[in-house]
Structure formats: structure tokens, C-alpha cells
Amino acid sequence: MVHESLVDNLCEAIRNGDYDRVESFVKENCNVNKMDQKGDLPLYEAVLLSNYADKIEVAVKIVDLLLQHGADPRMENGRGISVLDLSWLADRSCFNQVFAKYGYPEFAEHGYFNFVNKIELNKRMASKPLVDCACEAIRKGDLGLLKYIIKVTCFNLNRYNLNRRLPLEEVFLFSKDVKKTEIALEMLDLLLQYGANPFMTNERGISFLKLFKIEDKEGFNEIFAKYGFDIS
Q1: Which has the closest alpha carbon to 29: 63, 60, 3?
Q2: For residue range 11-66, what is the model confidence (pLDDT) as tens digits?
Q3: Phi, psi of 68 (to 5 degrees)
Q4: What mean pLDDT do residues 130-146 have?
Q5: What mean pLDDT is predicted for residues 156-177?
Q6: What does the alpha-carbon distance between residue 75 and residue 95 come to, in Å, rounded to a whole number?
Q7: Contacts from 98-106 at CB under 8 Å and sequence distance 24+?
Q8: pTM over 0.90
Q9: What confidence tier does 231 reach under pLDDT thresholds 50, 70, 90?
Q10: What confidence category does residue 4 fall into, taking pLDDT thresholds of 50, 70 and 90?
């Protein structure tokens, strides 16, 4: 194993929730504050792992292990987002205790106004339309980044991206992978909460409400109903 790829292997092990492999890479003196080829940090990946309800326990264990070996939650990934930003936006209170254990403030103290100006919209976001940034976050299943973009910028969720797709369409496509259903449900809830219109149509003239109705996936109907949309 070449040393340059050690952090990539570490991040992959974290994404898989494989604690034993994570521990073995850390014991090989892998730099836990180094970005992988995707521009993400091991600690960031560990917090993202908690998007899956059945992975929360191992995510907390991995975060504890990384902090124990010097991981810094104030460091920013390639998109300019720190783990503290991500954890606050994603409301991951499950990590409060372990971060407090290593002397970091609880996320409630790391509030919204601490990072609003920091985004500006950070150089990478400023280089392309926000809707494209949001759609990219959806395709990657990065719920924390999606929340960050929506809550900080309040951009129009009913605009098409450069590929003529709406964020709702990206969620629909993302939901086709049954392993990603849980995150897709959270993203759909978020988009509807902030004004996404499911009556808008794709290039074939089919509304996204109808697309979800055709697929009839478990859980999605309930979210539409929550916001007053009849999918029966």
C-alpha cells in the first residue's frame, strides 16, 4: 500500500462503516487531517456516515477514534465546510458528547451566524450557479452540504441546473438506489420544506409528483402528504 493512498483507503473504510479497518489505518499513522482525492476529510466522512440510522453508533465510535488521534473538527474540506459546520447543519446531537470529551464546544454554540459570512459563497460555489452546487450535493448524497447551501443562501429551488434538471429530479434519480432511500427521504423533506414545487416538470413534461407516484416508493408518499401534496 503506498502512503499517498492511505487516507483514501481510510475514508473508504469510514464510508463503509468498517471500524476495524479504520482502526488499522489509523494505527498505520495515517494523517487524519489530510484530504482524500475527493477533497473530504476522514472526520467529515465519519459525520456523514451518521446519515444512515443503522450506522450512527459506529459513526460515533469512528469520530471518537479520529479525535483521539488528533483529527481537528475545525478544519475545512475542499468545499470550505468544517465538521463543526456540517454537524450543526445536520443537527447531529449524537456527536455532542464525544466532541465535548475532547474539549470542543457543543454544536449549539457553533450557530448559524458564525459561518454565514464565511461562505461568501466560498470560491467554489461562486464559480457556478447555486442550483448546480445543490444538485451536485444531492448526487453525492451529501445532506450536510445541501443543507448548508439551502439554509445559507435561500436560493430558488425551482430553477433548472445547467443540465436542465431541478433539485427534485436529482433526488428522484438518487432515490432509485434503494440503499440510499433514507438519505433521499431526508433530502426530499428538506427541499419541500424550503419551497420546492413538485408540480414542476422534467423535459418530458412529467411532474415530479407524478414521477414519485409512478415509482410508489415506501415513505415518499408520506413526505408529500406532510406538505399538503396529494399523491394518491
Answers
A1: 3
A2: 999 999 999 999 999 998 889 999 998 888 999 999 989 888 899 999 999 999 99
A3: -60, -30
A4: 87
A5: 91
A6: 17
A7: 98/60, 98/63, 98/64, 98/67, 99/63, 99/67, 99/73, 101/64, 101/67, 102/67, 102/68, 104/73
A8: no
A9: low
A10: low
Helix axes 19-27, 6-15, angle to 10 degrees: 160
Taking the alpha carbons at both ends of the chain, their separation in whole angstroms is 54
Helix, strand, or coil here: 76?
A: strand
Cβ within 8 Å of residue 229, ≥6 positions away: 192, 198, 209
Centre a 10 Å sphere on the Cβ of residue 127 and count the other Cβ atoms it contains.
10
Which residue do the cell numbers 399538503 mark? 228
- Give residue for cell 454565514: 116
Give the pLDDT score at 43.
93
CB-based contact 191:185 (threshold 8 Å): no
Report how far residue 232's alpha carbon sits from residue 229's, in angstroms, rounded to the nearest whole number.
9
